[in-house]
């Protein structure tokens, strides 16, 4: 069977574009689809034939047989957007409130997600990564436990909504801790738009009763010389050292990209094997992981992103316009 790679992402995704360009330069057929195309700009009919879903997908100028997809690259699809309230058999008692308008759109969105998206995510092909594996690996409590079991160094960590327990923990580790969010997300913090919560050093006195309103993660600070972003593709490991040149960047390098320097770094074999054991436990073919590097040369695991960004770190080769991570991803997807 000739390779056919399905790239599942939003319409504007420069990182996915790099991989698509690489695959097409090698003569590999690719098709791009966004969940947000369903159902207004996409039509799919799928039948279960023996153990496989078979049928045709038509979306945004492409037409393909879903049973001919050999690999799927899951990146950043947008959410499904119902085009109209459901009709026919879905009307009446099947829709809460007898098909009332306030429920119809929600009903259509759920049916679309479980139908169209469900079929795509049930395709029997190579995935990088399957959405179910991504969802399982996104939970930070699980990441930290799994990394520790795999032999990686992990900072002492407390998750709590008890302010007094938080204060006790901070005092027990020397009087300061790093507060971090447990998921990569934004919040509507002001009229300026969505805000990102960056890692913050806190003292016991900074922890007040508002902690009781939500789960909080407090972690032992790591005295670091720098940090490292590791990108895993299959069994290949690519390391980049990140050197912060400002106080803000030293606390959380995402807060000050303009004051960062990058250089390639060799990943120690013990860290490499521990990280590969961690990714294997989740069934991941790809991830990015962040480590703190101490002056003594210790690599301390901070977190893992099963669908992380990597293109901004990649040094583009002047020979073929393709960096090593792009090439590794394309190679993995192109295998039949």
Automatic annotation (TrEMBL):
InterPro entries: MvdD-like_ATPgrasp (IPR048936). It comes from the Bacteria. Pfam families: ATPgraspMvdD. Residues 5-77 form the MvdD-like pre-ATP grasp domain. This is ATP-grasp ribosomal peptide maturase. It comes from Actinoallomurus liliacearum. The lineage of its organism: Bacteria, Bacillati, Actinomycetota, Actinomycetes, Streptosporangiales.
């Amino acid at each position: 069977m000739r390779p056919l790679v399905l790239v599942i992402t939003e319409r504007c995704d420069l990182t996915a574009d790099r991989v698509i360009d690489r695959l097409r330069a090698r003569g590999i057929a690719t098709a791009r689809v966004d969940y947000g195309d369903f159902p207004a700009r996409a039509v799919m009919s799928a039948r279960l034939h023996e153990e496989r879903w078979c049928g045709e997908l038509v979306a945004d100028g492409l037409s393909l047989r879903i049973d001919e997809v050999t690999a799927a690259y899951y990146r950043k699809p947008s959410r499904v957007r119902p085009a109209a309230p459901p009709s026919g058999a879905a009307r009446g008692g099947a829709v809460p409130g007898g098909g009332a308008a306030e429920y119809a759109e929600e009903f259509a969105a759920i049916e679309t997600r479980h139908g169209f998206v469900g079929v795509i995510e049930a395709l029997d092909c190579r995935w990088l990564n399957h959405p179910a594996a991504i969802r399982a690996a996104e939970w930070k409590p699980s990441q930290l436990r799994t990394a520790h079991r795999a032999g990686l160094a992990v900072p002492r960590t407390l998750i709590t909504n008890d302010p007094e327990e938080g204060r006790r923990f901070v005092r027990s580790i020397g009087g300061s801790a790093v507060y971090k969010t447990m998921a990569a997300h934004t919040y509507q913090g002001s009229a300026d738009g969505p805000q990102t919560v960056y890692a913050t050093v806190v003292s016991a006195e900074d922890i007040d009763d508002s902690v009781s309103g939500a789960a909080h993660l407090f972690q032992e600070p790591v005295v670091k010389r720098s940090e490292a972003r590791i990108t895993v593709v299959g069994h290949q490991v690519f390391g980049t050292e990140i050197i912060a040149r400002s106080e803000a960047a030293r606390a959380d390098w995402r807060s000050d990209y303009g004051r960062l320097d990058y250089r390639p770094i060799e990943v120690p074999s013990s860290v490499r094997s521990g990280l590969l054991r961690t990714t294997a436990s989740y069934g991941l073919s790809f991830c990015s992981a962040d480590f703190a590097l101490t002056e003594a040369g210790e690599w301390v695991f901070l977190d893992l992103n099963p669908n992380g960004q990597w293109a901004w770190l990649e040094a583009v080769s002047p020979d073929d316009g393709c960096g090593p991570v792009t090439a590794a991803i394309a190679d993995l997807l192109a295998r039949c």
